[in-house]
Write a structure and sequence with these properties.
Largest sheet: 4 strands, mixed
Number of strands: 8
Structural class: alpha/beta
Strand order of the largest sheet: 4-1-5-6
Radius of gyration: 32 Å
Strand content: 5-15%
Length: 470
């Protein structure tokens, strides 16, 4: 046992002193923080570039005429404006459009009701937001025009009353009856990140074990080492030492990532630190004071000038960020970190034993290419199943691949954020532990023979013979 501890100490200290370990330990928390905060930043960021869309309306259905000239019936936004031009062919704008200062040209044909199609011209790809806004606004206007042909009394009032915006929020019930707000997209992201990290750690640190065995074998240092320790002790010391290196790096990432995310959240998203009461007060500041005695406004508007269903400006972006952090709180960090550590340790030990066998069976890294595929194939298959499990974590495919030991470290980590029955986690963990013990016993028998074999390209048939040696 003392010899194994000495090997573990040597492997561990050698690797944590490397520049690559230090650099990745520093960069890792920033990568984690960026993974959480950058999508949130882009989700809450508003496009503030002013855009003017010139409109040629051959149908005349979307143009209103007044003393100030023709105007587009579709209202612009704070940063999106429309300008109607008449008597000017499209070809006039074809050359020099970029210098004109216009963002795009919207052409509405005369047969828009029959064709239900319009064209947007631009020298660059128009944004999804602009295209979606124009499409939605034109659809609403055409629907309104079609309804107006039926001579429905008070159509404007009816349309304003029936217009409704609905937000669907996911609420989870805990075992003690409490409620937690959740967001499927955020939970999917956490599960995907956890599964990919497990895959990355197992493959990266497992291949380090293989390379370490090959280097010692090629340099013939292994012959000196096995004169003092048994091959099994050497293999276990190397596997555990490299595994502790990966676990140390992961814990560094978790601790500093949490500190970094907390600090950046306080600096760039201060509204998320408000209590629910403070958030309500802040939202009220955007609203006009309503007259309690006033009735319904013109065209179905609510008192104060807000149409029903419209939220106060500026609240929507804050709500998105609030929902993201509320969803993160709904995921138990203790369960996630504990599960990650368990599946990383035993998933790594399982695959590291197989990587060590490959390293002992070859004389150089080039020869590993023909033997490594059967080892990493279950991991790659686990990635494909993981993508399916993100969309449906409770289907039969996700269940069985989260139980099978060779794929459970990746697939189970995707399912855990969604909530997995404890008996499934216990069954998966037990099978993984049992498979690790069996694989370690097999790897030890193969390792003791292959580590001293030189100058011969071995196959899986040859490895099977080593396994049967007494």
């Amino acid at each position: 046992m003392n010899k194994i501890l000495l090997i573990i100490q040597r492997e561990y200290l050698t690797r944590i002193r490397k520049k690559s370990f230090i650099i990745m330990s520093v960069l890792g928390p920033f990568i984690f923080a960026a993974y959480i905060l950058i999508p949130m930043y882009f989700a809450t960021r508003e496009d503030t570039e002013e855009k003017t869309v010139v409109v040629i309306d051959d149908s005349k259905l979307f143009t209103e005429y007044s003393a100030n000239g023709p105007t587009f019936v579709i209202p612009g936004t704070r940063y999106l404006k429309f300008k109607v031009v008449e008597g000017v062919p499209i070809e006039t704008f074809r050359t020099g459009f970029e210098e004109s200062g216009y963002y795009a040209l919207l052409f509405i044909p005369s047969n828009i009701l029959a064709s239900a199609s319009s064209l947007i011209y631009s020298t660059k790809q128009t944004s999804v937001e602009v295209t979606a806004y124009i499409k939605r606004a034109m659809e609403n206007e055409i629907e309104h025009l079609k309804l107006s042909t039926h001579d429905i009394p008070d159509l404007e009032k009816i349309m304003a009353e029936v217009e409704t915006n609905i937000q669907v929020k996911n609420i989870k019930w805990t075992r003690d009856g409490k409620t937690q707000e959740s967001n499927t997209g955020v939970v999917m992201g956490v599960g995907y990140l956890a599964g990919m990290l497990i895959f990355f750690f197992i493959f990266f640190f497992g291949s380090q074990v293989m390379r370490g065995v090959i280097e010692e074998k090629v340099s013939r240092i292994i012959e000196v080492i096995v004169s003092s320790v048994r091959p099994f002790q050497l293999m276990m010391g190397k596997i555990i030492g490299v595994g502790l290196t990966g676990l140390t790096q992961f814990l560094i990432w978790v601790i500093f990532s949490l500190l970094l995310i907390t600090g950046l959240k306080a600096a760039f998203f201060p509204e998320l630190n408000r209590t629910p009461t403070e958030q309500v007060i802040a939202s009220d500041l955007f609203e006009e004071p309503a007259d309690n005695n006033a009735g319904e406004g013109i065209n179905g508007e609510a008192p104060g000038g807000e149409t029903p269903g419209n939220e106060a400006p500026g609240n929507e972006d804050a709500d998105i960020a609030t929902q993201i952090f509320a969803s993160l709180k709904s995921i138990n960090p203790g369960v996630m970190i504990g599960s990650f550590i368990f599946y990383f340790i035993f998933g790594y030990l399982l695959y590291a034993a197989m990587f060590a066998v490959i390293g002992s069976a070859v004389d150089n890294e080039t020869d590993t290419q023909q033997m490594i595929l059967p080892v990493i194939l279950p991991l790659i298959l686990g990635i494909y199943v993981m993508i399916s499990a993100i969309n449906n974590p409770d289907n039969a495919l996700a269940f069985w691949f989260s139980i099978i030991p060779f794929t459970s470290p990746v697939v189970m980590m995707v399912r855990i954020p969604f909530g997995v029955p404890w008996w499934q986690v216990i069954l998966s963990g037990t099978l993984l532990l049992a498979t690790f013990l069996g694989m370690t016993w097999m790897a030890g028998k193969i390792y003791r023979t292959g580590i001293l074999m030189y100058g011969k390209k071995n196959s899986y048939r040859e490895i099977w013979k080593w396994l049967r040696y007494s």
